[in-house]
Design brief:
Strand order of the largest sheet of chain B: 1-2-3-4-7-6
Order of helices and strands of chain B: HHHEHHEEEEEEEEEEEEHEEEEEE
Largest sheet of chain A: none
Strand content of chain A: under 5%
Largest interface: A-B, 65 and 64 residues
Order of helices and strands of chain A: HHHHHHHH
Structural class of chain B: alpha+beta
Largest sheet of chain B: 6 strands, antiparallel
Strand content of chain B: 35-45%
Number of helices of chain B: 6
Structural class of chain A: mainly alpha
Distance between the termini of chain A: 48 Å
Oligomer: heterodimer
Radius of gyration of chain A: 17 Å
Number of helices of chain A: 8
Number of strands of chain A: 0
Number of strands of chain B: 19
Chain lengths: 164, 350
C-alpha cells in the first residue's frame, strides 16, 4: 500500500472516528480537524505497525487521538499545524447546534472522553481504561460522575431548552 | 437518562465528513507527511530536575490497623451517612456488613478501610481519609471533585464491573473526610483477600481539567473481604424476550437489601460480537427493559433508566447485566416484588 492508498484507507475508515473523539475533547470542529490531520500524518510518517485485528488498530488510533487531544489541552496555546494551502479551505463537518452535545460539552474533558468511548464507541470500562491510560476504577468513577452531572444539566435545561 | 444517551449518540453520529472531504483530508495528509519527511523537526534536549523527585520519594509509608487505636465502630455507624439510621436499617446493616479497620499512612495522610457491606453482585466499601494536624491539606470547595490519581480496587470481579464512588464530609469540624466506593459485577463477585492501592488524592478544575494534587502519596490496603449474604435469587424459570429477532433470556434476578441485579443472556454462536461497537442499540434495548422494585408500602423504585448496565462476551454468549445499589438499605421484608419487563417476581417473606 503506497502513501496515497494508506491515507485514503485511513480517511475512509477512521476520519469520522478521530474527528468525533477530538471534537469531544476540544469542543470545536477546527481543532478536531487539526487533530485528525496530525494523527494521519503521524501514522503516515511512522514505521508501519502490525495490528492483531481491526479492533486493535482502532483502539491504537483512538489512543493516539486521545493523547494528541490531551497535549493540545495541556498546551498554553493552541498551534495550528496545517499551514499548507491545501488545508486552508478544507471543509470540516459542520459545528453541531444540538442540545445534548452542547450539554455534554459543558462537562470537564475527563468526563467527556469516557462518556464518548463508553457510550458512543461501545467499549467496556476496562478497554476505555486501556485507551486513556487510566485505571478502570477511574473510568467507573468518571462515567458515573459524568452521568450525574449530565443528568442535572439536562434536568435544568441548557438555554431553556426542554428535554425529554 | 438512557434515552438522552441514545440521543447523544445520534447527534454525535451526525458529525461526519462527506466522501469528498475524506478524499481532501487524505490528499492533505500525504502532502504534509511528505513535507515532514523532508524537513524533520529536531527536538531540543530537555534538562530535568531531579532534586524535587528525590525529596518527594523520601516520604515514609506506615501500615497498621485503625483498630489498634481503639474499638471499631459498628458497621451501621460506618454506613449510616449513606444508608440511613433507622433501627430497622441498622439491624440489617449490622447483620450483613463487616467492620474492617485497616489503615495505611503516607506523608501524614492516613486512609483506612472502615467497613464493607454487599451482596453477590455489589460491594460497598467505606474509607476515611484523615490527616495530621500539621499536614498541609487544602480541600477544594466542592469535595465531590476529589478523586484518586490511581485507584486499583477492581480486582474483586471478572470483567464487566461497574460502579460509582464519591467523597463526603461527615463532620466539617474534624480533619477527616469519607470516601464511599460501590462496585457492581456482571458476574458474582469474587471475594477473599482484597488489596487496594490508591495514589495521590487530587481534584480537577476548569474545563481543561487541570489537576491539583492535595495529598501526594500511595496507600496500600489489604483485608479479607467477607460479608453476610441474605439475597433472594430467582433463577429457576428463565424468561425469554425477543428484541429485533434476537432471543434474550433473563435467567437470574437477585434481590438483596443492598440492591438488585438482573442478568440477560443472548447467543450469537458465530464467534462474533452480536452487538457491534458504535451501533450497540440492541444492547441498549436490553438495558431499557423495565426493572421496577415495588415496596410493601406501595412505593416503587424504577431503575430502568438509572441503574448500572454492563456487558461481556462469555464464550458464544453475550451477557448483559442491569442493576443498581439502592440509595438506602431496604430490609427484604419491605420489598414486595421486582418487575422485570412484564414478569413480576414476588419476594418471599419469612
Amino acid at each position: 500500500m503506497n502513501d496515497t492508498q494508506q491515507a485514503e484507507y485511513l480517511a475512509n475508515k477512521y476520519a469520522d472516528t478521530i474527528f468525533r473523539l477530538s471534537y469531544t475533547y476540544l469542543k470545536n470542529t477546527h481543532d478536531a480537524q487539526d487533530i485528525c490531520q496530525n494523527v494521519f500524518v503521524k501514522l503516515l510518517t511512522s514505521p508501519l505497525k502490525k495490528f492483531e485485528n481491526e479492533e486493535h488498530e482502532k483502539a491504537y488510533i483512538l489512543r493516539m487521538t486521545a493523547n494528541a487531544c490531551k497535549n493540545v489541552l495541556k498546551s498554553p496555546w493552541r498551534r495550528r499545524m496545517c499551514t499548507l494551502d491545501v488545508c486552508a479551505d478544507m471543509p470540516a463537518p459542520e459545528e453541531p447546534d444540538n442540545s445534548i452535545l452542547l450539554a455534554v460539552n459543558t462537562l470537564p474533558a475527563h468526563y467527556r472522553s469516557v462518556i464518548h468511548l463508553y457510550y458512543y464507541e461501545g467499549y467496556r470500562a476496562e478497554e476505555v481504561a486501556d485507551i486513556l491510560g487510566i485505571s478502570a476504577a477511574a473510568v467507573y468513577s468518571r462515567l458515573n460522575r459524568g452521568r450525574e452531572k449530565l443528568k442535572k444539566l439536562l434536568e435544568r435545561g441548557i438555554e431553556n431548552e426542554k428535554f425529554e | 437518562m438512557n434515552r438522552q444517551i441514545e440521543k447523544y449518540k445520534e447527534e454525535l453520529y451526525s458529525l461526519q465528513y462527506t466522501p469528498e472531504q475524506k478524499q481532501q483530508l487524505a490528499r492533505a495528509a500525504v502532502l504534509m507527511a511528505e513535507q515532514k519527511q523532508q524537513h524533520p523537526f529536531v527536538k531540543q534536549k530537555k534538562r530535568t530536575l531531579r532534586t524535587a523527585f528525590a525529596m518527594a520519594a523520601a516520604g515514609l509509608v506506615l501500615v497498621g490497623t485503625a483498630s489498634a487505636a481503639g474499638v471499631l465502630p459498628s458497621v451501621s455507624e460506618i454506613f449510616a451517612p449513606i444508608f440511613g439510621t433507622t433501627p430497622e436499617k441498622a439491624e440489617v446493616i449490622n447483620q450483613l456488613g463487616t467492620p474492617i479497620g485497616v489503615a495505611d499512612t503516607d506523608n501524614g495522610v492516613t486512609i483506612s478501610v472502615d467497613g464493607i457491606i454487599g451482596d453477590p453482585y455489589n460491594i460497598c466499601t467505606m474509607y476515611t481519609i484523615s490527616w495530621d494536624n500539621d499536614a498541609d491539606i487544602t480541600l477544594p470547595e466542592d469535595i465531590s471533585t476529589l478523586d484518586f490519581a490511581y485507584n486499583d480496587s477492581c480486582t474483586i470481579s471478572s470483567a464487566g464491573t461497574m460502579g460509582k464512588d464519591y467523597f463526603f464530609d461527615n463532620d466539617p469540624t474534624d480533619n477527616k473526610i469519607q470516601y464511599c466506593e460501590i462496585r457492581s459485577g456482571l458476574s458474582e463477585l469474587t471475594l477473599g483477600t482484597r488489596t487496594i492501592t490508591l495514589k495521590n488524592l487530587q481534584y480537577y478544575e476548569g474545563d481543561d481539567a487541570a489537576t491539583h494534587i492535595i495529598a501526594e502519596g500511595q496507600w496500600k490496603l489489604s483485608f479479607n473481604a467477607a460479608y453476610q449474604d441474605n439475597s433472594v435469587r430467582f433463577d429457576d424459570d428463565p424468561i425469554c424476550y425477543t428484541i429485533d429477532n434476537n432471543s434474550v433470556i433473563c435467567d437470574n434476578l437477585t434481590v438483596s437489601p443492598i440492591g438488585v441485579h438482573a442478568e440477560f443472556k443472548t447467543e450469537h454462536g458465530d464467534g462474533k460480537d452480536l452487538f457491534t461497537k458504535s451501533q450497540s442499540s440492541d444492547k441498549d434495548q436490553i438495558l431499557y427493559i423495565p426493572v421496577i422494585v415495588t415496596k410493601t408500602d406501595g412505593t416503587t423504585i424504577d431503575i430502568t433508566d438509572t441503574g448500572f448496565g454492563s456487558w461481556d462476551d462469555i464464550g458464544n454468549t453475550e451477557v448483559i447485566g442491569k442493576g443498581t445499589v439502592f440509595d438506602t438499605i431496604i430490609p427484604l421484608d419491605e420489598i414486595k416484588s421486582v418487575t422485570v419487563g412484564t414478569v413480576v417476581y414476588d419476594i418471599p417473606h419469612g
